[in-house]
Amino acid sequence: MSGSVPAPRPVSGSAGAPVRILLADDEHLIRGALAALLGLEDDLAVVAEAASGPEALAMARAHRPDVAILDLEMPGADGVSVATSLRSELPECRCMIVTSHGRPGHLKRALAAGVRGFVPKTVSAQRLAEIIRTVQSGGRYVDPELAADAISAGDSPLTVREVEVLELAADGAPIAEIAARASLSQGTVRNYLSSAASKLNAENRHAAVRLARQRGWV
Predict the structure, then answer these.
(1) Are strands 117-120 and 94-99 parallel, antiparallel or unpaired?
(2) Shared domain check, 55 and 148
(3) Do 51 and 116 belong together in one domain?
(4) Residue 52 CA from chain centroid, whole number
(5) Residue 7 domain flag
(6) Is 117 helix (H, G, I), strand (E, B) or coil?
(7) Is 176 exposed, middle or buried (0-12, 13-18, 19+ CB in 10 A)?
(8) Which of the listed residues 61, 101, 110, 183 has the most CB atoms within 10 Å of its CB?
(9) CA 39, CA 134: separation in Å to the nearest integer?
(10) How far, in Å, CA of 70 to CA of 91, rounded?
């Protein structure tokens, strides 16, 4: 028979074994569909699934995956928080974030946490499989559009305390409640909210929360 023989697909797992994957996403339908599609790849194996941040950590500790694919927004702990914990507990596990709400601030937090991949949920399963192989082999992948947005947005001007107070104000809580939850005086809370609004050129704290969320700073 004439013609060239296709080169075998490289296998990234240890000792030629499939890459062991943890999938963490609170949307069961999406998680199940992704697990089924990745399961069609000979060199990839989904060994554990989770629907929340704490469950993702438990599954990672139990199964010790090569790659953890983490939804950015999950109950209990977000994907970046999980990645931060795994970086110290299981440094050999490479983490990726998938999200339908990528913001510049989210990307910067993820990179600071040691995340190796940051991918929108619009990516195809085939492309995701390629990115998993890249990450497992020691590379990094960041969606180009998200990277461009992060560069143009710049760094957050907010202090840690301003972010904390804005997060507490996000659900419309009154000043007294925010002060009690943050262990601050009401006057101090007002000062932080006013400062945050000023830095964001927002007319009030509600607008400040909205703008900070749009940029992934809260």
Answers:
(1) parallel
(2) yes
(3) yes
(4) 13
(5) no
(6) strand
(7) exposed
(8) 110
(9) 17
(10) 16
Residues 146 and 193 in one domain: no
Cα 144-148-150 angle, rounded to 5 deg: 115
Q: Which domain holds residue 105?
A: 15-152
* pLDDT (tens digit per residue) in 153-212: 667 788 888 888 988 888 888 999 999 988 999 999 999 999 999 988 888 988 988 888
Distances (CA, A) of 45 to 67, 97, 141, 172: 10, 18, 20, 44
Does the residue 5 lie in any domain? no
Q: How far apart are the first and last CA of the chain?
A: 61
Specify the pTM: 0.68
Pair 97, 175 in one domain: no
Looking at the 3D structure of the chain, how many domains does it have? 2
Q: Which of 152, 170, 191 is the last residue before a domain boundary?
A: 152
In 3D space, the residue among 149, 140, 136, 141 whose CA is nearest the CA of residue 106 turns out to be: 149
